[in-house]
User: Which sequence fits this backbone?
């Protein structure tokens, strides 16, 4: 549901943001000038593509962080909400590079303009805003990333709400000023606990780190005021280590649904050598587990949704479904479905450029091994 807010509602929402929402010079911690020009941030801005003018169409997918199924469909969120507006802690299991992990998502308690308090999970809205922030971070003098290691290192982006709105609108996505601010609040407040099932690693984090409303900009209109958002420590660690992969941001944004955009980025991460002649197999149960976006009561309904999403990607010229094979059990019940996919020539070329860029990043940062 979209809530209409007047200017005072939006101002109160901005002031209610947790963390470090700065209102004075004494609270403001400006990223150092050199942090806008480090090797880490420079490599994030350098994309491999056919023409110089096409570089603005690309962004970066962060290897581990983007594999975490942290977004919930609005339908599932409303189904899980109790009569008091509260949401349970949602636990999901997923696999990344052959290793099983669990993520627990604690919703953000948000105050609506009418005074009600509702818990909110990160949804497609938050995914769009986070993708837009990371895209803006690839532009000159906007993204920053320190040289130091965690915990002293810092990365993030400087921007205005107007820039986010324009970036999304140019790609057919529309969000109001208040919705963007609220999305940032949800991402800064919702808590994610991520642990490896073998017990070797674990972290408790938010999607975004500190949020700063740059002081001493009273002359600017509200939507033109400058903000600074720090990315969380997991993202910062991966950016510093070069653990990210270029992808066609505009093509991803053309995907019409949240699941289609997730599946596009899944193919970017998993289909490293995509080509029309080298097929990739995906299974319904794996996509259901790793995306968290197929929470249907019946597996047949989840399969229908996945099939529709694959047709959407076919229409967008991303891939082609070569074969579909169902596994059935007692009473002909659907147990799983396997899809055999072939990459389009365009997506195959994108994979080649992404591999070339990944090698350049590792050389520039002195990193050994794969992404």
Assistant:
């Amino acid at each position: 549901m979209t809530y209409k807010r007047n200017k005072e509602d939006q101002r109160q929402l901005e002031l209610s943001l947790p963390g470090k929402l700065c209102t004075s010079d004494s609270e403001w911690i400006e990223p150092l000038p050199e942090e806008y020009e480090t090797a880490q941030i420079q490599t994030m801005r350098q994309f491999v593509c056919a023409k110089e003018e096409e570089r603005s169409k690309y962004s970066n997918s962060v290897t581990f962080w983007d594999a975490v199924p942290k977004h919930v469909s609005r339908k599932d969120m409303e189904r899980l909400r109790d009569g008091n507006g509260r949401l349970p802690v949602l636990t999901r299991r997923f696999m990344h590079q052959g290793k099983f992990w669990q993520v627990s998502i604690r919703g953000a308690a948000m105050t609506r303009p009418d005074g009600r308090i509702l818990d909110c999970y990160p949804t497609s809205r938050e995914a769009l805003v986070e993708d837009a922030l990371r895209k803006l971070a690839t532009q000159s003098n906007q993204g920053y990333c320190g040289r130091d290691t965690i915990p002293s290192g810092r990365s993030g982006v400087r921007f205005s709400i107007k820039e986010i709105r324009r970036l999304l609108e140019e790609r057919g996505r529309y969000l109001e000023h208040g919705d963007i601010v609220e999305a940032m609040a949800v991402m800064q407040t919702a808590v994610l606990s991520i642990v490896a099932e073998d017990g070797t690693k674990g972290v408790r984090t938010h999607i975004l780190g500190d949020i700063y409303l740059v002081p001493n900009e009273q002359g600017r209109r509200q939507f033109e005021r400058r903000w600074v958002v720090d990315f969380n420590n997991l993202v910062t660690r991966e950016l510093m280590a070069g653990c990210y992969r270029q992808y066609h941001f505009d093509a991803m944004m053309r995907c019409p649904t949240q699941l289609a955009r997730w599946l596009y980025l899944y193919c970017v991460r998993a289909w490293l050598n995509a080509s029309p002649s080298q097929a990739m197999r995906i299974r319904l149960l794996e996509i259901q587990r790793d995306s968290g976006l197929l929470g249907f009561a019946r597996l047949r309904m989840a399969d229908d949704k996945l099939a529709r999403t694959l047709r959407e990607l076919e229409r967008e010229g991303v891939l082609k479904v070569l074969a579909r094979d169902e596994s059935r059990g007692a009473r002909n019940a659907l147990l799983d479905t396997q899809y055999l996919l072939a990459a389009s020539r365009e997506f195959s070329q994108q994979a080649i450029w992404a591999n070339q860029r990944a090698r350049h990043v590792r050389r520039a940062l002195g990193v050994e091994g794969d992404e």
Observations:
- The chain has one domain: 7-365.
